[in-house]
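Encoded backbone
================
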Amino acid sequence: MIFQTEKFYVDTVEKEDLPGIVEIYNSNINFLQAHMSRKSVDIDWIKKEIKNMKEEGFYSCKIICKKTKEIIGIIDFSLKEKCYLSLIIIHNNHKKMGYGKEIYLGFEDYVKSKGARDIRIDVVTNYDRNVLKFWKVNGFNVAEKIELNWTGKILNAFIMKKRIFS
């Protein structure tokens, strides 16, 4: 286990988790459309994405509900002094329940305990205004406007940062 919160624990993705990871991505059709211009991904795509993330120094982790033992989300991050939170995605059936906030706050506590001083995220600007609002409410500030290239699609985005140690 990497870290836990009251309702969830986070651990690295294993081979047997891949069908559940595919389901989480595919439950978020708007995310897939906005970020990759597609309506679904498959296990091969997930394997490639996890491999690419690992090669770049990122952990790909599953978010598991303690009560049901169900994988309800994914979190990808690199753990350095300047931590990079690449992705938090929650299954569409579990959105708007406060789970994202609980997971994020647990993640922040975890990276603080590992010596991180800052957290960076990239937020796609033309996806969902609630995402930008979520990060601002959680203490992030826009640092720079950028263009991301994810799976060959160019996306307008903001780099957002939060200082977690002064």
In short: The longest strand covers residues 153-163. The mean pLDDT is 94. Helices lie at 18-26, 29-36, 43-55, 99-113, 129-137.
